[in-house]
Sequence to fold (162 residues):
Amino acid sequence: MKKQEIYEYLADRKLWHEITEHEAVYNMAELSLIDIPYPEAEAKNLFVRDDKKRNYYLITIKGDKRVDLKEFRQKNHTRPLGFASADELLGILGLLPGSVTPLGILNDTERKGGVFFDRDFLEPPGLVGVHPNENTATVWIKTNDLISIIKEHGNPVTVVQL
Fold:
């Protein structure tokens, strides 16, 4: 799915969402320069894989947090983790670097990727801001709706404290 298809998907499902169109952003520092309506809900997304290239995970955390992959591995009982390559990102999620988003899971036809969501996104207001598969916009959506979309697609979702 491309950006417009994501917009249509959310509208067809009648899910509350808001869209903020903006210049392309490739990291949280660039996003901080843009006037966004819900800065407390902005997400940072990491696409990682285990050392055997068998298991892939999308980690979605609050924008001001960092993930220690060694600590994450220990708490979530995974093999050693590293960042997936641009080719793996494109092949599995259909995304380019800088556009990583949980909505990319809708492109994961083989259901290879599991998703880990930061529990803090469930705290009021219960919103998360993610790219619509392109880094030229942010879609604000209820966290529980996004989790439901991913689960309905068939990818596992784990809510964790990060």
Q: What stands out?
A: The longest strand covers residues 43-50. Helices lie at 3-12, 28-31, 69-76, 86-93, 143-153. The mean pLDDT is 95.
